Structure formats: structure tokens, C-alpha cells
Amino acid sequence: NAGVMQNPRHLVRRRGQEARLRCSPMKGHSHVYWYRQLPEEGLKFMVYLQKENIIDESGMPKERFSAEFPKEGPSILRIQQVVRGDSAAYFCASSPAVGRNTEAFFGQGTRLTVV
Amino acid sequence: KQEVTQIPAALSVPEGENLVLNCSFTDSAIYNLQWFRQDPGKGLTSLLLIQSSQREQTSGRLNASLDKSSGRSTLYIAASQPGDSATYLCAVPGSARQLTFGSGTQLTVLP
Q: Minimum mean pLDDT among A1-5, A20-24, B101-105: which range?
């Protein structure tokens, strides 16, 4: 059973381009969370998705950021018109259900560099 | 709004020492608390998940304690080794199980 797979591991984009980050949850997991770790800062929650639904996007920037988790395929975090301040490590976590003590499993992250 | 604080921010110890990392949280109505390890440039590895009904959880040389009433958790590492060098993060889940993380303790174990 492969773990949470994120790709690419490293992504370089020029200012103004689009960045697409992909996350394939563990087999059997239908809940996906995205987190961002800015340089020298802690991990911050961005968005929580179940298949085809956004459950909580309270941590998402209001503009340029969107996320989806389609019925088939990986979850996608999309950043339009990237700026230097978007440079960060983006982590995805998945869980099988939302119980009191459900553990989330993290991927290795995608490190986005905007030049 | 839940806030999680970790002290110290950085810690350097000689190999073999026992050490304690601290985590505090402002809202004691938590389901559990999780400790993670993060190596430079890598993802997060879950170390221990301690449920709200538990006071302690152990895994090998690691022991995590939880005191909900005071909003505190500690991670005890026995007989530290250079391979333990990493950043240690604690996190608590919110109502939708999204995690609020502390800023971490960067541990260096000197050989």
C-alpha cells in the first residue's frame, strides 16, 4: 500500500505562470487536506476536501488559489499567476474517515519556487 | 481559535542525553494530539498520536504525555542519538480534523 504520493517533488515557475500540484491519497482514503509551509514558518492548513466536495477552505487565500478532488484521479491544488510569496512547501495529507482519532498520513511535499 | 506553541524553538544536546520537548495549546477541547518529525527538505513522519482520554503514549525511546486541563503535552526522548536530529512538530485537530501545528522544535544531537 503506497503512501500519499505528491508530484512533482520540486516545481519552478516564473512569476505569472500557473502551478499545479498533485496529490494521490493512500488507497481507500477519501479525505484530503492541503497544508502550506512558508520559509521559516510553521505548517498552515489550507483546504479540506472529500471526493468531489470542498468541505473547508478557510485557510485558502481568497484569490488565485483553488483545489479540487475529482471522483477519479488525484487531488489538485492550483495556483494561478504565481508570485514570489507563493514559494513554499505544499503538503498533502489523507485519511480514510473522519473519526475522533483518525490519523492523517502526509506526503513528501511539493517545493514550489517562484523565480 | 486554537493556537499551538512549542518551546524551545531550538535545542542542541550531546548524544546520550534524555530530553523533553514542550507543546502547549489554548483550546483544551481536543480529540487527540499528534507529534511529528520533519527532516530537512522532507515530509512529515507521524511519531505518536495520543488520544484525549490517554495521559501517555510510548513508542520505543519516545514517550508523549498529555494534560488536557492545562493544555500541555511533552515529548520525552530517551538516550538521544544523532539520528534523532530533526524538527519536531506537535499538532491538534480541529472540528473537521484539520490540524493546527506548532512552529516546531529544531533538535540537534551532537555526536
A: A1-5
